[in-house]
Write a structure and sequence with these properties.
Length: about 450
């Protein structure tokens, strides 16, 4: 099949490359000429494990193309995907749909023959209705079926998530779209992947509900972690104890500094606004948003308390800046709240992240180092903010020798307290007995 993918951001590029790897002919389209030129030379705009090789292979085999103009690709396409950004709108937290609607208007003037228009972007309930209205008003003769097909990709594991998903959700109102979408995802039949066909609005809400539930799960275990610190319990053992219950599951039960990234913060906020506008408030998600916002500030206070309450002229080394490992995404990362708070308290901060290059523009005043041992050099405390694999097995003797004071505040619990104490460190994790509770 022939596919046009409008947008070459995280979702569009990964989805387009994976569809091409399924054997479809895909053109990824973006108005940014520089980005398209770099993609044509094999230079990726994002860091995602395996993506560079996947793109290169499908370009080489003639299944994946890049263009700044959508006209030809849309005209020839069996399916046109809208995969543009839907950031939080300033002022009210609603999803900004201006890019989605602009793409719909562009598509309207270019489609030729029956075409399935698919929303891959995360959009509020009813957006598919509006897309259909925009296209039909611009082209009353348009022969289209507008479909919702939300993505469920984890940054750092996106290719595997696309090719081996737990499920594929497809929201349709026109039955002619069903065989087209089934054919696009036919390679997944080998793994017996469930493909759930629903109504379009149900599909749109499913995406928001999934992200909100996972965000609540993270926030829940973070609040349990706080209680563990007060009561002398261990949150990791609590998480294991409840996670072994199949009704709960073990994923997203890792206590830490709060969720960030491109999805959970904006999607929970958008769902809250949508529910409020509909007159059906969703209070659990409202609380999740509020608690998570406070969580990041509380983690800065935890570091301050671990250091005895005085940071003036103290040097803090920070390992990890991106919101999670295996990505270069800095959006809503806890580091963007925690590090400025430490700087404001008078500390000097030196940091390293393997892929968080954007942090140099976002975190002025930080001394960026070339590696974890450089970060430890002369530090009064070492704070672990992102659980990159290369931080999990550091030479602890070398780290201690480099530091001015052997103090580690591990906000991801990647080390065992007994191991760190045996290595000569004062060690504080999250949700463990003895951890400083802000």
């Amino acid at each position: 099949m022939r596919v046009a993918m409008i947008g070459t951001g995280y979702v569009g590029l990964v989805s387009g490359a994976c569809f091409a790897d399924f054997g479809h002919v895909v053109t990824c389209i973006d108005k940014d000429e520089g980005k398209i030129e770099r993609l044509s030379r094999g230079i990726m705009p994002i860091y995602e494990p395996g993506l560079e090789d996947l793109v290169a292979r499908n370009v080489r085999e003639g299944r994946l193309f890049f263009a700044t103009s959508s006209a030809e690709a849309v005209r020839e396409a069996d399916a046109v995907f809208i995969a543009v950004g839907t950031p939080s709108r300033r002022g009210d937290g609603h999803a900004d749909l201006s890019y989605v609607y602009a793409a719909a208007e562009e598509i309207a003037g270019q489609i030729d023959g029956f075409t399935v228009v698919v929303t891959k972007s995360t959009v509020p309930v009813g957006t598919g209705d509006e897309i259909e209205t925009i296209i039909r008003q611009a082209r009353p003769d348009a022969d289209i079926a507008v479909v919702s097909n939300p993505e469920f990709l984890r940054e750092g594991a996106a290719i595997n998530d696309f090719k081996r998903p737990d499920r594929v959700v497809v929201g349709i109102e026109d039955e002619r779209a069903r065989p087209v979408m089934a054919e696009l995802y036919r390679p997944l039949n080998l793994n017996e992947t469930p493909i759930l066909f629903t109504g379009r609005r149900t599909s749109e809400l499913t995406k928001y509900a999934a992200n909100a539930f996972l965000a609540m799960k993270i926030t829940f275990i973070n609040e349990v972690a706080d209680l563990c610190e007060v009561l002398g319990a261990d949150v990791q053992q609590v998480a294991r104890g409840i996670g072994l219950d199949n009704r709960i599951g073990s994923k997203f039960l890792h206590a830490g500094p709060g969720y960030g990234g491109s999805c959970f913060p904006k999607d929970t906020l958008a769902l809250v606004r949508t529910a409020a506008d509909a007159g059906s408030p969703i209070e659990l998600v409202e609380t999740t948003v509020r608690v998570n916002d406070a969580r990041k500030k509380a983690m800065a206070a935890k570091v301050v308390k671990a250091m005895g309450g005085e940071l003036v002229d103290k040097t803090i080394g920070v390992l990890g800046l991106t919101f999670k490992p295996n990505t270069d995404d800095m959006r809503e990362a806890p580091s963007l709240e925690i590090i400025p708070a430490l700087l404001a308290a008078g500390a000097k901060v030196q940091a390293f992240d393997p892929e968080g290059h954007e942090a140099r523009q976002l975190l002025p005043g930080v001394d960026f180092k070339a590696g974890p041992y450089d970060v430890a050099e002369g530090a009064d405390a070492l704070v672990i903010l992102t659980e990159w694999d290369q931080f999990r097995a550091l030479d602890l003797e070398r780290v201690r020798a480099a530091m001015r004071q052997p103090l580690v505040v591990d906000l991801r619990n990647i080390y065992r307290p007994a191991e760190m104490q045996a290595a000569g460190f004062r060690y504080f994790g999250v949700g463990r007995a003895g951890a400083p509770h802000p």
